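We emphasize that the prediction below concerns an isolated chain of 517 residues; any contacts that depend on oligomerization or on bound cofactors are therefore not represented. The input was used exactly as deposited, without trimming of termini.
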Amino acid sequence: MIKYREILRLHAQDLSNRGIASSCGCSKNTVGFVLKRAGEMGIHWPLEKDMNDSELQGILFPEKNKSDTRRQPDVSYIHKEMAKSGVTLSLLWHEYTEECRNQREIPYSYRQFCRFYNSYATTSKATLRIKRKPGEIMEVDWAGQTASLKDNLTGEDIPAYVFVAALPCSQYAYVEAFLSMNTESWITAHLHAFQFYGGVARMIVPDNLKTGVDKPSSADPVINRTYHEMAEHYHTVVMPARVRHPKDKPNVEGAVGIISTWIIASLRNQQFFSLRELNEAIKEKLTEYNQKDFQKKSGSRHTAFLEEEKFALLPLPASMYELANWKKATVQYDYHISIDKMYYSVPYEYIKHLVDVRVTRTIIEVFFKSFRIASHMRLHGKEGQLSTFPEHMPAHHKQYVDFNRDYFLKWAEAVGLHTLTMMKGILASYKVEKQALKSCLSLTKLADQYSAARVESACKRALEYSPRPNVNSLKTILKTGQDKLQLDTSNPAIKNENQGNTHGFTRGAAYYGRKEK
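Result of the prediction step, given as a token string:
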């Protein structure tokens, strides 16, 4: 707009028309025309009442205001619509022109339409939605400057790495310190940022750091598997910035510089002995930073986030993502894999195959070509523990799993009373039950070799010899056929010999082929 007030003021100071035109940025003819019209209207400097340039234009050139009959766009409505996904200024201008034609009104051009909205958004609202939509992007990065902790024993300084996240639309920031920049710290920082914002942006823009991107590429970057899994859990997308292109995430880059001054540098004279103390101090400074008023706009980052961006964030899932690490392992011949010196079974069909293992705090999951083939509760404590599922075992191995104490007692009861007594005696004769089960298994195999009836008879004969016989004596009885012999109790000599023998079965001279003297 022409500076009518300045033209009148400079003319009152006897400045030439050429000088006035140079100072006000307009032509000499325009200055002459304005001064001529002011003389005709009787308007001189100083003005009788304070008027701005628009009011002076209405008095000096009323025809200009009457000629502009075009319909003013509803900038408040435009600002609300721009928050919606997929809505652009071009689409809104097209709808605006269609509505003007239907009501036989003259619309503004697209350039003027954008100027109206830009002026409204920059002066009346904290956010400008021409470049960034609310809830669309969250930019993340590590700050170049580090904070420090104090070792309470040695007094040495321990570096603390500062994570920064920013929402470009409202400039709302989140800051947290960690002792490492590893994958666990990187994922944990994202989870805490989501909780802080109370929602999730539709896109995450990180740098090409190794904890986030395995292979940077402008066309098809390879995202770290844990990072990608976390993004899937929160229904968001990771879109890394291009290599050596910090302008792809300018908001977080700017926030890093500001936060380095407002938070990290402001805490330089304080000593912290734990990460919790440092993060509490950072939280106080962060609240002050987010609630600090804008210099050229009304409101603050906090108010802009609550009023114009929080509603656009995706809701948080019902459960928080559980941090998981991915490892590779080869299935050994015993159909187990080793994770942190603990052993977990895998179906035996995958022996010598390379599998992917997802390790969380509580669960071990095994995948083969993205298909889950096994899942175990994670073992803790003494090294070398095993977690084995019978369904992972071959058929000829699986049968040994079912051979327990109850199985053998049930089998012996079905064979006979003497076999049951024999089985109980074997189980009671060993300190370790696993050793006893081997002897019990040998006893069942004798029934397969000879017969259940002969085993019952042999057990009866063995119990007559000793109250706690073993399997070897039972094998001898069956091999020599003693189970088929019946004791001749009609012979008085044998009867008296047996009655006088208090030590059980004793071999006499007849056993060695000699005659009694």
